[in-house]
């Protein structure tokens, strides 16, 4: 069987993952409406999110995040009322190291949730838009207690005028945690898509071995957090029907600005930490005129830099790039199907001679033969229910959630959909498993796969082995195709998640519980 080369993995894997056809961005409604960034000309200075760091003794990052409705003027967009962390979009960047602890006080200053009528589809209908929790996307930390526990609910005050509610998260970062780029966002079932489309997200940087590589340490470290907003009438509407966001053009912002301008000198090397912090759209990225090497995917360092000319990031995916300035001039980071540039790069100034590394402290890309195999099928059914949410987004195959009524067929509201009291998979720590995950959807076929707590090693695309497997925590499923991965869960027991990271699909039930056991 022919293998896919390493360079083809970096281009082809996310390409298949995001289901981009001819380089177009893909989203929930890619078949009906292209996306666009905010209509802004280059010239906005390049912003960086505020950074919060650890106190030296003890090694603890103790901070407070307040979630509230904020009216703010976004460069290149205008005035928008949106839910934010501490009044900024994106939220502050959190910098930590392995062995640190993260102590977060989270304040819910949002209005009370309106009363919601009982729905025949149960909890797999978007709801509770002012309730949130905390997910540390990609981080290898405990999924239980007050840590990365997405089964928690940070409710707002029950009645108007009452004091904001306060919630605490305590996360111990293990000494073996990989150094890399991660992010945080709400993950309360039913409200994730709406809150992400408000811009509720922030970057987490775990410092470590890769930062000591001389050529990497010499490069300017730049966060490129890409948010996707659905702005209509000066605000982001709540997801109250299947088609709420269908006719609203996406607004893409980089660090809270539309098409900001970054400068680089000829020959200068910069490290870009790119995060797709959207909810719906996979981005096919190209940067003209520059020499670009990828050094990490989803927070896991490669063993050596890999030249790339294009990169597709699924929703939730991250890529660390080393970008070397080329000839003086103006260049653009673009995404296929998005009408405006995401950002502008201006090459100017005195030339510099900066080197690229030849080797990196990457994780080995092999795992032993599996002791167990599983098969999962992501499948969408259109127009099977009545009411405002007519589609069914299901994960079928091994471990599928059983139906309420076996005779109901595709109209059963529970079959293959999230159920909070049903464990779909029990995965034993230290045991290697192989999963084949198939995308068997038709129209709604955009399904980025995300696993919490542990990274997995992608070994095959459409049953073609990769010459060099790649570690991920989020990867798109090729339409009418499959991904084969190997997983060795380590360190942490407890209930966790696997789901589609097209967050509207997730809110409508395309999610399962994975319990890690000894």
From TrEMBL:
Keyword Oxidoreductase found: yes
Pfam families for the chain: Cu-oxidase, Cu-oxidase_2, Cu-oxidase_3
Record lineage: Bacteria, Bacillati, Actinomycetota, Actinomycetes, Kitasatosporales
Source organism: Streptomyces griseoruber
Record keywords: Metal-binding, Oxidoreductase, Signal
Alphabetical list of CDD domains matching this protein: CuRO_1_Tth-MCO_like (cd13853)
Name of the protein in its database record: Copper oxidase
GO molecular function: copper ion binding; oxidoreductase activity
Low complexity compositional bias, start-end: 26-45
Residue segments, region Disordered: 26-58, 397-417
Signal sequence, start to end: 1-30
InterPro entries in UniProt: Cu-oxidase-like_N, Cu-oxidase_2nd, Cu-oxidase_C, Cu-oxidase_fam, Cu_oxidase_Cu_BS, Cupredoxin, TAT_signal
